[in-house]
């Protein structure tokens, strides 16, 4: 049996960053988006997917943007 992912639900990829959606706890809370590079957490606490994509684009350098066509 496979292990569950503690990162959350995979949403999308921007360059070499992965965006995951964390589900709220049963006690209450809201959905958050987090950004990972490989296994390293880069940013968390983003409320909308568009906000997470903009954060990824700002983290990517100009050289990587031209390589990935962003």
Summarize the structure.
This protein is of the alpha+beta class.
What does this structure look like?
This protein has 70 residues and is of the alpha+beta class. The chain has one domain (9-68). Helix content is 26%, strand content 36%. The chain contains two helices and four strands, in the order E-E-E-E-H-H. It has helices at residues 49-59, 62-68, and strands at 9-14, 17-22, 32-37, 40-46. A four-stranded antiparallel β-sheet has the order 1-2-3-4, with helices on one face. Strand 1 and strand 2 (17-22) form a beta hairpin. The chain is elongated and about 45 Å long. The protein starts with 8 loop residues before the first strand and ends with a helix.
- Total domain modules: 1
Low-confidence runs of at least 5 consecutive residues: none
Tell me the strand percentage band.
35-45%
Number of helices: 2
What is the radius of gyration computed over CA atoms, rounded to a whole number of angstroms?
A: 13 Å
Structure classification: alpha+beta
Element string (H = helix, E = strand): EEEEHH
Fraction in helix: 25-40%
End-to-end Cα distance: 38 Å
From the spread of the alpha carbons, the general shape counts as elongated
Mean pLDDT: 86
How many individual β-strands? 4
Please write out the topology.
Blueprint: E1 9-14, E2 17-22, E3 32-37, E4 40-46, H1 49-59, H2 62-68
